[in-house]
Amino acid sequence: MADPSWLDKNNITSVRLKTSTGTVEIGQLEAFGLFGQTFLVILYSLSTFFALTGNTLVILVEIYGRRSARNLQKFLINLAISDLLLGVLVTPFIYTDIMLGRWIFHPLLCPVTQFVQLMSVFVTTYTLTFIGIERYVIFFFEFFGLTYKKKRKYRNSDF
């Protein structure tokens, strides 16, 4: 088992509330209240669940289905994988950080989580951009009746 010496249990963020009867010190997790905690747990759990199931279904449909164009299929699978990374590998860490108000995991996981989050958002943004460009080009060629023909280097009579 790993040595959890990096986790300093004495350094806990707390909130002090002044009331008419005196000052009450509560932990950061309790600062949200029961309704806030319940709401955040349900929100993040549903978000992670739908990210996992929805994107897995998209990947399966795109792999085994034959309806979308081959180019678009690659983009949609790429988009679903980046959303899976964000929903499964990043969301639980963000949830824990928000609820507790501090990072409780190994210090090495903090930059790794940030990298995965930034990479996933980057891939999602560029995938959506490329889908838009590809759809525009297809529309442009169809609308104006243009065709793309490869120029042959040799004619049939050359062989």
TrEMBL record:
InterPro entries according to UniProt: GPCR_Rhodpsn, GPCR_Rhodpsn_7TM
GO molecular function terms noted in the UniProt entry: neuropeptide receptor activity
Key word RNA-binding present: no
Membrane association type: Multi-pass membrane protein
Positions of transmembrane segments: 39-63, 75-95, 115-146
Family: Belongs to the G-protein coupled receptor 1 family.
UniProt protein name: Neuropeptide receptor 22-like
Lineage: Eukaryota, Metazoa, Ecdysozoa, Arthropoda, Chelicerata
